[in-house]
Structure formats: C-alpha cells, structure tokens
Amino acid sequence: MGKQVKCILLLFFITAHCLPAHSQALLAILFGKNIHNDNLSLGVHVGIETSDLTNTPGSTLLPGLAIGAYTNVKLKGNWTLSNYFIFKSSRGAANIPLDNQLIADVPGATDAKLKRKITAFELSPLMRYNVTPELSFAAGPQLAVRTISKDVYDISLPNDGKETITYGTRGYTDWIDVDGALDVQYAFYEGKGVRLNLRFSQGFVNVYDSKVPLNAKNQYFQLGVGIPIAIGSSKK
Fold this sequence. Notes:
This protein is mainly β. The chain has helices spanning 2-31, 188-191, and strands spanning 40-53, 62-74, 79-93, 112-130, 135-157, 161-168, 176-187, 195-203, 218-229.
C-alpha cells in the first residue's frame, strides 16, 4: 500500500508540473484557432516500438504501436518542455522462455511460442534542447501506468495447424513503471512541420508483481512521427 501511495504522489507532482501546458492543449483541441499562444505547439504522435525485457535470456523484440499526443512549450533560449501523452504504449517481449511462465499448466505450452504483452498509458515530460530549429535532443522521466497485461501462446498443432491461447496477467505484473528516456527529433519547415523522433526508454522498476519470483525491466526503441495541429497565432 505504501508503494502505491508513493507512486500516486509521484504521478501527481509530474502531472501538476505540466498542467498549464496540458490545459492549453486541451483547450486548443476543443476550440482550435480561438486559442492563441506563440509559445505553445501541439499535435498527434504515433510511432512503431520494439520492446524487450531485461534479465530474460532468449527473448526477442516485440513490435507494437504507440498512439498519443504531444505539446511543446517554449522556454528561455534554446530550451523547450516537450510533454508526451501516450495513450497506448506497447511493452513486453516475444519468445519468452517457458521457464518464465506466469500461468501454470497451459495446454500445449511445450510446443508454443510465448509473447508477454503489456500496454500502458505513458506520461513523458522531456526537456528538449534545440541545436537548430529542426534538430533537437531531449531527455527526462517517463511514468507509465499499466492498462493491459497478457500472455499470448502461439501453439503449433499437428498437420501444420496453429492455435492461439491468451491469458490475462494483470495480477502478475506491476501496475506502474518509471523510465528514463532519450529522444532525438528532426522537425521539418524550420521546426514547425512534421517531426520525426527516435527514442530509447529504459525502465527502472521490476515489471512483475512482488509475489512473482522474476525480475525484469522494460526497454524499448521507438520511431515516431509528430503531426502538428494548428492553433493560431497571437494577435499583434
């Protein structure tokens, strides 16, 4: 219980730090060009992720999607606060060794390939330094709250048949993760157009519940695209 309280407080403080930008972003989405702020930009963010779990020998990268939104708030000099709200962040790994199973006595497990899929809501306030209007680098924390957790068994059957069995594993994985992220971005049209992002994220928290005798941390690479939403300019 104490751990959950600490995590909730951490989420509150990170969220509170970003509230002014988030409030304006929501207003901009609702009212479009009726909101004017030259220091604020926002857009839709989508990406392809390949995730893996540390301390899991034999596992391979698991592909997935990231879907969300972003806001950028200009600060002094070349600095920008980039806030990402990823409503669907894909985590986990493929080809999990069968000695790392969470569910006992799965029929046909010995002839199966096991994928461990975790989906999370992710909040990322990153400090970004703009080397040029187009090229920038960012780093910062990420807080992820698990929304879906499941193990998928792809079982090979006789006569080249296949069967898929899915088990929910919410009771076996932790509900929160804290990561560190590094991000490289190139934005077209002098920083005002579509932006391409390459991000690496390293988890610092064991993805498994304390009752599970396993220990692994999530990590992923993401290739993302940011599509700006016009919100108007300040009236002179």
